[in-house]
Design goal:
Layout lengths: L5 E11 L2 H12 L5 E4 L3 E2 L4 E2 L2 H7 L5 E11 L5 E11 L6 E9 L3 H20 L9 H10 L3 E12 L6 E11 L1
Parallel strand pairs: 1-4, 2-5
Antiparallel strand pairs: 1-9, 3-7, 5-9, 6-7, 6-8
Length: 181
Amino acid sequence: MIIPRKIFLTKGIGIHKDKLLSFEIALRDAGIEKCNLVYVSSIFPPHCKIIPKAEGLKILKPGQITFSVFAKNETNEPNKLISAAIGVALPTEINQCGYLSEHCAFGEEAKNTGLYAEHLAATMLATALGVKIETEQDWKKQKQTYKISGKISKTTHICQSAISDKNGNWTTVIAAAILLE
C-alpha cells in the first residue's frame, strides 16, 4: 500500500514548434522531466505535509514512478492566454483526507484560474465533510463560510499562465501536485 506523506506543488511553461517538445520543456521548467508521471485523482492523504518545491525535487530520482495530480493546457494559436492550476483544500482534522483539483482555462488570468481550482478543491472537501454550501455565493464568501465551519483549515493553489507564442509555436503550461512517500 502506497500512501504519500509529502506533497509539493510545481508549475512550468514550454514553447516549441513541436507539441511534445513544448510539453517536455514545461516539465523541465517544473523540475519533473525525469519522472515517469502517473496521474491520480484528487485525494490529499491524511497526515500528508506540503513541502517546498526545492525539498521535493531533492527527493526525486531519475526514472522514478511519480504520482501526481496534473493540469495541462496547450495551444499553437498565436497570442492566446492559457492557464493551468491545481487547487488544494485541507481539513482541520489531520486524520481526514483533503482534496486536490485541477483546472485549465483559455482567456482567463492566472489569478482567476488558480482561485477557481482552489474553490473546486474546497467545495469537494466541504461536501465530503457535510459543510453546507451556498452555491450562489461568490468564492470569497464561500471561503469564509468554509473557514468559519471549523472543518477546513487551509486552501491554496498554484497556477501557470502564458500568452502563447506569437509565431504559432506550441505553448504548454502545466501545474502539478507531486505526491511522495
